[in-house]
Amino acid sequence: MAAVLVLAIIAGIAYTMATAPNLRWEAVGHFLFQRLILQGIVITLELTALAMLIGIVLGAIVAVMRLSPNPVVSSVSWCYIWFFRGTPVLVQIFFWYNLATVLPYVGLGIPFTPIHWQAPTNSLIAPFMAATLGLGLNEAAYMAEIVRAGIISVEHGQTEAAQALGMTRLLVMRRIVLPQAMRVIIPPTGNETISMLKTSSLAFVASVPELFTRSQQIASANYDVIELAIVASIWYLAMTSILTVGQYYLERYFGRGSLRELPPTPLQRFRRMLLTFHAPPPMPPDVAPPGPAVPGSEHR
Amino acid sequence: MVSSSSGASSRPSARAGVEVRLEDLKRRYAGVTALDGLSLTLAPGELVALLGPSGCGKTTALRLVAGLEETDGGRVVFGGEDVTNVPANKREIGMVFQAYSLFPHMTAMQNVAFGMQLHRVGVAERRKRASDMLELVGLSPHAHKYAHQLSGGQQQRVALARALAIKPKVLLLDEPLSALDAKVRARLRDEIRRVQLEVGTTTLFVTHDQEEALAIADRVGVMQSGRLEQLGPPMTVYSRPATPFVASFVGLTNRLNGVVRDGAVEVRGTRLPLVQTDATNGPAVALVRPEAVTLAGEGDSTPGPLNGTVIATAFLGATSRVTVDLGDVTVLAQLATSDAAAHPAGTRVRLALRPDPVLIERDEAAPDHG
After folding, report:
1. Which of B97, B109, B166 has its CB closest to that of A157?
2. What is the ipTM of this complex?
């Protein structure tokens, strides 16, 4: 009964939208594969990938620092998380974008030596750079907490066993702890990536010509605001769908060693279903399609 | 580190065991003394078991030798080299943990081969030595399984192989059998000893299970409150306990009231020689092993100091442990199974005490002892 009601409401909304008198669906179709839009998608993907790269690498460093026995190191890490998590990412992008207004030149040098290098801020922090920095540095704060949760989820005996074998602290982290922490780290990281794909539309304020900026630039010329918002939404939805599938396989990969047998992938399930349809007698287990090849079983 | 696997023998070449010395080791945790000046020397290739109740400091001692914790005093010396300030990863130790602690993202083979990478062992040599080690612990058929695909006993064998693959100077076993069920435990215990004898690595073994310690150690160190109460071969620790604590912790003991008089203790009408020959006269508790309680004959209903009723019999094989109610106290007697069978629960028996030297214990709080 409730299901019928829910379906009826959804159908109603869909019908209203589909037949809205001023909604030009042909415009949606027209702009969906427009060159400007497709270029915007490329920039959105670049922005997401770079920001996540900064976020993950810097986040892992901040997380390891946070767990350091050295109080100075762990405090610095704490302050980083506190600051970047405590200010809106929109403001952070805005900050980097407008940095040139307060700091016209950026330089690097070693004090008391002639070694010095400087450049105009505006040439260094172009809009794309500003958005990448803003998104990436903010993301690092969140990733740091995710990585930290992963690290502390690994049993301490693992560290001691690795130390006994002769590994340094850093090597233990890289070869033993982090690979196991991945199982805990990957799901929320996938979440963050999907979130980042959409948050990258905030690069709009730095005039980065990504998907949303492009759609709105077109809309400001032809006034098809909703139509172009729909175009952008369709693309965002398509991209997040692909990422969701990618996340599934990534989780499977890092889940090895914790499950007795990995569950079949949807593709394997489908293939198995076809096989049972075509071969009426059930197959003995040893002829069944081979289980998933477990990666990394080659010993080094 | 030398990594030559000399020629013909496919067995892992034994590193000559080194002497391991613990000198006056001290450790305190937030005001609680965990280790109160422990000194112990392990001869090259020797297996010493540290035995004691939980909290006696035995695990702390092991972790100090491993370098997983810092000492508050004393030294750890491996083969003449002071390693007290050497971190765990530079001490060349092999360690086996109660919880196995295999790396779950690696196969058995990878686990065993992993440590060798850090010791600059070539790929071919690494692979060969890893298979040798797995063969040594009888796990070759399972080399490519992950930890969770192995049983507890198998996992612990892999852990042993992993620890020995790096040819450690000293092997440290931290309650390695405690997480296993009884049958596997006994088998793996003997397996550990066989492997240890084969590779000849000096080994420190920590356990709370006296049976384990007595079964495989060259010497057993019984610990209490951060101190070594007695150190000696299993036979000596069992049959000549140095202190009342050792007597009651190792093996079963009857605690019988008696009176010390002129260098012997009189217990239920029997005079028993004393271990502590300097004991003063007065009341005391004598610690009598069940083996020292013998069957003197059929009991009758007349009361006597050692006449009583059988209330339970535990069959142990050739011998049986019989619980006898003497009226005011119950005693355990270890009798030949044929004797025990002749006296089922409910029958009367007359017991005797064999005049072996016994330890006595005195209640410090009792006001009236001499």
Report:
1. B97
2. 0.76
